[in-house]
Amino acid sequence: PATLPLVINTWPFINASAVAWQVLQSGGSVLDAVEQGCTRCEAEQCDGSVGYGGSPDEKGETTLDAMIMNGDTLEVGAVADLRRIKNAIGVARAVMERTDHTLLVGESASLFAENMGFTAEDLTTNKSMNIFSQWLSNNCQPNYRKNVFPDPSKFCGPYKPTAVVNEKRRAQSTDILSHDTIGMIAIDQHGHVAAGTSTNGMTHKVPGRVGDSPIPGSGAYADSTVGAAAATGDGDIMMRFLPSYLAVELMRNGADPSSACKTAISRIKKHHKEFFGAIICANTTGHYGAACNKFSKISKFHFMVSNSESNTPLMKSVDCI
Ligand code: SD4
What we know:
Blueprint: E1 6-10, H1 14-25, H2 30-44, E2 64-70, E3 75-82, H3 88-98, E4 103-105, H4 106-115, H5 126-138, H6 153-156, H7 162-171, H8 173-177, E5 182-187, E6 193-199, E7 220-223, E8 227-233, H9 235-238, H10 243-252, H11 257-271, E9 277-283, E10 288-292, E11 300-307, E12 314-319
Parallel strand pairs: 3-4
Antiparallel strand pairs: 1-5, 1-11, 2-3, 2-6, 5-6, 7-8, 8-9, 9-10, 11-12
Helix pairs in contact: 1-2, 2-3, 10-11
Residues 65, 179-181, 199, 201-202, 211-213, 232-235 line the site of N-hydroxy-L-asparagine (SD4).
EC number: 3.5.1.26
Site (Cleavage): 180-181
Organism: Cynoglossus semilaevis (Tongue sole)
């Protein structure tokens, strides 16, 4: 039986789910729940792929993408390529509530954040430095450059063809599994809906690269007349398909959350058999679902659900299609 309120988020990020649930239980808004739940992941560096000290880019810097969406007003706040500020989803919310804009990027987003009172600090950690220097010294490949860049060796040492890199990435399921954006949906008893995401993107990305996570309709989408969706995975591919928007529109037309999620994944699969991605969906009756693409060793996707059935976050999983 479906119940409200409901918090659902990508991956087994149990503390994030617990924080968001607690916010709703103590009378906080769905936006507070999503912001604080994702903030928790940023602070504890969930899987190394949310928050500071993860996914160093080709220059070794960690940069963050995040968004938050108010399903009542359809307002969005987002930041992309955010530098030196840990609380990316907090800044995203400030963009939504304290400007007339939707998306701020790069150094200018950082400056905005500082003006809003967020602390500027180095996002590099020993761990991210190690990932970066290991890549530089012995395993350096221009992962996210096509073979046409003038001289990739100038960037990171001996060039190896992209195909080799991809093989290698696929063989190391932990590498793939470490790309774990938090996407979260919160719905309260009154049917207010919010959704959000936070991530440090992809390791060894080209500086300036922005993923799907801060893009409305791609990383997440929320509409309180329907429900919400949030996505995770290979953002460079997923963002071309607006899977979160598609899933919400399918639910608007009567699809249940599981089949909406499946259709959104299938749409991408039509064009990319080999991509890593998953999506979570929920509607305003408290029903929820998820779907993922079968990829390499990944045949299941795990996500967290908090509702009054258990009163505590439960891990759920879905078989990939
Ligand atoms: C990105 N979608 O930046 C993110 C990464 C991710 O699970 O979600 N990994 O492409």
